[in-house]
Amino acid sequence: DHAAIAWSENGAATVAIRNAGPLNILSSAVMEDLRQAILRVSADSRLRVLVIRGDGDEAFVAGADVHEMVDLDEDTATIFIRRLYDLCEAARKCPVPVIARLCGYCLGGGLQLAASCDIRLVAHGTKFGMPEVKVGMASIIHAALLPRLAGVAEAKWLLLTGEQIEAEDALRCGIATRVVPMDELDAAIDKAVAAILS
Asked: Crossing angle, helix 74-92 and helix 28-42, to 10 degrees?
């Protein structure tokens, strides 16, 4: 199982990626387990706030599984991309506010998943980008949310160059909601959850 669900008594739930390596890479199995976990808590009447996070602090998600992607053909690539689409839609259509806990790397499919959340709370040192373009793959699907968040100019920079930006740049352009020191990230999430619940 690649997703863990934790509940607090106040109706806040956390869905965490697990068993996906230190950088929380999105394989088909990880995407499906994570999607199912988000759908499970979304259907629970107790839910009032959802937090989505990676396992550990090295990354939220450093991208999709390139080892799996290299062997895809047209049909299997369609299935793979559909899994990423369905995962992002599960977060985007969750009936309560969704907070993304971002630290380390937030790249590719990870940035698309973060963009699908309502609030992105970010640790200093987090890096954002769409590096797939550097190997000839277009950033598609929920990358379409980036111009709304970051503005057209910054979105084009990310989507055409594949370059990474720092947390402070992500805050300036609107991708990050708030940026805090790493040792204050969980407290900032708790504070945001409490504000929403109140």
From this structure: 30
